[in-house]
Amino acid sequence: MQTDFLNDDRNIHPNRLSVDVLIVGSGLAGVLTALALDEHSNRYDVPPPNILLISKGRVTETNSYRAQGGISAALGPNDAPKLHARDTFYAGGKKGLLEAIHALTEKAPSLIRFLETTGIVFDRDRHGNVSLHLEGGHSRRRIVHAGGAETGKKIMQTLIHQVKQRKHTTFWEQALTLKLYAHPARMGALIARLDTPMHDAPSDWRGSAWHESETVPSSPHRPNSSTGSFGQAPSIVQTHPSKSHQIPNGKSLLRPSIWMVSTKVIVLASGGIGGLFPFTTNETLLTGDGFALAAELGTMLSDLDLVQYHPTALLTEERPLILLSEALRGEGARLVTDTGEPFHMTVGDDLAPRHQVTEAIFKTRARGKSVLLDARSIPHFKEHFPALYRILTERGLNPAEDLLPVIPAQHSIMGGIAANLSGETSLPRLFAIGEVACTGVHGINRLASNGLLEAGVMAMQAKDALFPYLQQKDDPKAETIIFVMAQETLSLLTEKEKADLVKPRINWLPDHTLLKIIFQHTAQHLTPLSPSERPIAISSDPPEDNRSSLEEALHTLTSLLAHTPRLSPEWLALKTTVLMLEHRLSRIHRLHPNQSLSCESIDTMHEPLR
Ligand SMILES: Cc1cc2nc3c(=O)[nH]c(=O)nc-3n(C[C@H](O)[C@H](O)[C@H](O)COP(=O)(O)OP(=O)(O)OC[C@H]3O[C@@H](n4cnc5c(N)ncnc54)[C@H](O)[C@@H]3O)c2cc1C
């Protein structure tokens, strides 16, 4: 890997870097792609590619690290990939692509075996076999866990440790991809990396903690112990701001340096969109940047408005919210209203599919009632759910006595960059892997524990599709063109934009004021879909009003985007929000905007797999 300092007379002096593969994202999709490429070259005795792997935040700040439940794979004696495929198809409202679903579920057992070879230890039963668990929507026990409810953390700790040992892989944390460039023989990226220590914070630096000022913190919700009756429902539980970032002293501040990267291929593994929603279970730095970056290159995007909510996140003032998984309801916890009435689902029961429970909770809240999870009947909660018990008690809640206030929260996105299971997109040399990709397997609703599976299987598949590009000779002319394009982008910035670009930021979070505007629109317009593709109602507004307010929202955000500096986290967040709203509007109008495919049309992306 070579670096070179490009002198110019402007106040940004970008560094230049040339690699074989740039991987944007250090969740399961990104890290496993890096490891799989390295393994592949060992096996075929070819020189390993130089890889630059970057993540926007710290290595632990990914959804992969947060994953609790596990990975699904048909490993049991009474199970088969085709049964797993059937469950995936039905959970997705029968809208998924069967061919892709079958390919995914068939590869699941070999993914688990491969992960075991890396040193990951999956939980075992008393006979020494991998223990298989059940989750909502699965007709067989097929969820594998590592460390109980810490599956994501255990997997990622092992894989990150390994990737850091690889000589040819360079890992940058806190590095933001701002823009991509494409040439038939080369790709490129502009990256801002927090790596230069600062001794004095600029006076206008805004690094304060996030405060949800509209919501009033109050005390934990518990029934009156003497009467068993319910008091006034609090809207939120007060917590210690343990995850908030305090303004650090000048010494620990880092200023970004700007990098122009030239590469043979780019793998976007940049995950989801939770940071664009007021209530989310996701890492809040995930603002769907990959969608904005790919759209700018004219790459096909599909169904960006297919957002999944998890019905039961613990209602606190934190971001992200804590997930209260379906496993609690599976063990007997029940949803109740704040006045103690049982909670009525229109269809099914408390364990109905996520979008149905979500809709029922929204309707109850629209009537002015809060919804709570009563887990008091779960025997031995502490032993069954030790990690969750610790999290709840840290927040002053005792699940044996207290009712747990819940709210539906954005959880994942089914749409994304149209790709096949090898990550190939409509643009040669650009790959999309994991949650950022739309392979069509999830239909309109992702089945529990299929998220890690998809990220892992795609990473393992991608190496074969990537390799032909890596064996091509370097093209110095194409590389020069990439650097010239990147330099041009920088030269168009105003002095203020240049100064803003090199200011320190925490986790590259967009400006709070802008985020609040985005939140209003995502919460109102990007609700989950029912199987009839009708957006589920969160209020009593008639659909016609929804359509005109969606058009207004698009107008407002598009104007804001036009006035937002291109090389900023704000631009990436806004651009993605606009794309998502456009896709929702086009669904409503039954038209498709430019660069968009319907889920069915992704079928063409699977050609290379046939
Ligand atoms: C609370 C929670 C629990 C879950 N539990 C499960 C479960 O039990 N089983 C399951 O299968 N799935 C689960 N999921 C879903 C699963 O975690 C995701 O589907 C999966 O982790 C996605 O992996 P990924 O590698 O695509 O993205 P992520 O792991 O989210 O990684 C995204 C990466 O992209 C980087 N990035 C983003 N933008 C940029 C940029 N502009 N520049 C540089 N880097 C960037 C980020 O820094 C990060 O490193 C859960 C999700 C959540 C939130």
From TrEMBL:
Pfam families per UniProt: FAD_binding_2
Pathway annotation: Cofactor biosynthesis; NAD(+) biosynthesis; iminoaspartate from L-aspartate (oxidase route): step 1/1
Keyword Flavoprotein: yes
Region (Disordered): 202-249, 530-549
GO biological process terms on file: 'de novo' NAD+ biosynthetic process from L-aspartate
Catalysed reactions, as listed in the record: L-aspartate + O2 = iminosuccinate + H2O2
A GO molecular-function annotation: L-aspartate oxidase activity
Alphabetic keyword roster: FAD, Flavoprotein, Oxidoreductase, Pyridine nucleotide biosynthesis
Cofactor(s) required for function per UniProt: FAD
Biased composition annotated in UniProt, kind: Basic and acidic residues: 202-214
EC class of the enzyme, as a word: oxidoreductase
SUPFAM superfamilies the record matches: FAD/NAD(P)-binding domain, Succinate dehydrogenase/fumarate reductase flavoprotein, catalytic domain
Domain FAD-dependent oxidoreductase 2 FAD-binding: 20-194, 263-452
Gene3D superfamilies referenced in this protein's UniProt entry, alphabetically: FAD/NAD(P)-binding domain, Succinate dehydrogenase/fumarate reductase flavoprotein, catalytic domain
Protein name as it appears in the record: L-aspartate oxidase
Organism: Candidatus Carbonibacillus altaicus
